[in-house]
Design brief:
Length: 443
């Protein structure tokens, strides 16, 4: 039938658009490696390669109670972590959802909310009073910040859809400390780190072969351990060359402002141009959980407009930007039935659209293309670090976390296949799955 031919034709077109062949990946890896190198040379580079002032790994013998507060992008998590030594720990966690308004409202209100959640966690969940000894708190704040100390972090720019005014250019620790004082929260803010650095250190605490921490969540970024001798922009501090320092790459910014290396589709361009930060975080916008559902939705919307999909149906619910979460792509891909009953359910329940089997098969294939491209782009970034640090010879583990990594079917396998496409069989050594981020283990 005519329909059958058109759907197959469409799929072939999208396959060509979204597929990353090994050659293309290898070129990207090389460019990313050069970009990382550049970011370590001087301040102000597009990929800022941020020194975190985390000096080396934990030894594994650390013990004691620590609070962690994680402002990720979708949720706020507050945890009490009890380190027990020998790489063992326990965790107690409460999760609070952030509203879209909170992401755009004045920054002080956002940090007041964090302080309030922390206060309620300490008193209600832990049953502690302000007379108890102040617990040390590490603040996981996963947006690009300039750091000159571990407890000081100046926000360079918001990402992941945040736009809260009066925070960019300011020290997040100072703003947060004011909020803590306002709510009389009895804690001592000892450090600010990104989720990637947290994942790196926490995963290494449990498995010392871990050399890279990576996040595939609302956003996407990675951290690894560098020696100060390889960070020329820190020379003026006079630290010994062999001093270790965790670097948060902030690779989401790769190819930003004047994109020339990434194989962007028109859907990626639309997402960028209609975002609250056009031109920024271009790599992240092709990979991260915040955006994949939207890439998918934009393709469908275009086909609907052309009369190639959901003919005669009211598609108004599907026409709303960001109406389709990346979690739906996961659900479609993991539908075990021949009839694709889950896909039927998603479209009829959430969008009021009845689908044909062919349309559902098309949707599932499209989700796979978009999810696979994300994993393979992520593999390119990881390969660039592996190659830069020479980890291929010895092999290493990568600590990975985030809902996209943890919940998208086959995401880890696709990264793995990507690494093999880049490095050949040697790529098999690299990625040992270890999902281990102290603040997210129960997430
Ligand atoms: P954060 O990065 O904000 O700390 P998460 O790691 O939970 O938080 O990531 C949230 C992102 O993960 C959201 O953008 C959401 O779309 C995506 N997500 C949530 N559930 C799933 C799922 N089942 N499959 C794929 N992506 C998911």
């Amino acid at each position: 039938t005519r329909d059958k031919r058109t759907t197959a034709d469409h799929l072939a077109k999208y396959e060509a658009m979204f597929t990353l062949p090994p050659r293309r990946m290898q070129t990207l890896v090389k460019t990313m490696e050069e970009t990382f190198h550049k970011g370590l040379q001087k301040d102000g580079e597009t990929v800022p390669m941020i020194p975190t002032f985390v000096f080396g790994y934990a030894g594994g013998a650390e013990i004691g109670e620590y609070l962690a507060l994680d402002l990720g992008g979708t949720n706020l998590r507050v945890c009490l972590v009890t380190l027990k030594g020998q790489g063992k720990f326990e965790i107690k966690q409460t999760k609070y959802k952030l509203t879209d308004e909170q992401k755009q409202d004045d920054g002080r209100k956002l940090f007041d909310f964090c302080a309030e959640c922390l206060a309620s966690f300490i008193t209600d969940d832990l049953g502690r009073t302000s007379e108890d000894q102040a617990l040390p708190l590490s603040f996981t704040f996963s947006y690009p910040c300039t750091q000159s100390r571990i407890d000081h972090a100046e926000l360079i720019r918001w990402a992941k859809g945040f736009g809260a005014p009066n925070v960019e250019g300011h020290d997040v620790a100072a703003i947060f400390a004011e909020s803590l004082a306002k709510f009389n929260v009895p804690i001592k803010l000892t450090s600010i780190i990104s989720d990637t650095t947290g994942t790196l250190i926490a995963s290494n605490y449990v498995d010392p072969s871990t050399k890279i921490g990576v996040i595939f969540g609302t956003g996407c970024n990675a951290a690894y351990m560098e020696t100060v001798g390889n960070i020329p922009k820190m020379k003026h501090l006079g630290m010994p060359d062999d001093q270790e320092m965790a670097i948060s790459c902030e690779w989401g910014a790769f190819d930003s402002f004047v994109p020339q290396h990434l194989p962007r589709t028109k859907y990626d361009v639309i997402i960028d141009e209609t975002s609250n930060k056009p031109g920024e975080q271009v790599f992240e916008k092709m990979i991260a959980g915040l955006y994949l559902g939207e890439v998918f939705r934009l393709v469908l919307a275009e086909m609907v407009d052309a009369g190639d999909l959901f003919l005669g149906q009211n598609t108004s619910k599907l026409e709303k930007a960001y109406a389709l979460d990346t979690a739906f792509l996961s659900l479609m891909e993991s539908d075990p039935t021949d009839e694709l009953l889950t896909v039927i359910g998603i479209f009829s329940y959430f969008f009021g659209i009845e689908t044909t089997l062919e349309e559902r098969q098309f949707c599932r294939s499209l989700a796979k293309l978009i999810g696979t491209r994300a994993a393979r782009l992520g593999a390119c970034g990881l390969a660039a670090i592996v190659s830069k640090k020479g980890y291929l010879d010895k092999g290493c583990s990568i600590g990975a976390d985030g809902s996209l990594y943890g919940k998208y079917p086959g995401f880890a396998d696709r990264i793995h296949e990507g690494l093999i496409d880049i490095f050949g069989e040697a790529g098999r050594q690299v990625l040992r799955r270890s999902v281990m981020h102290l603040t997210k283990v129960l997430g």
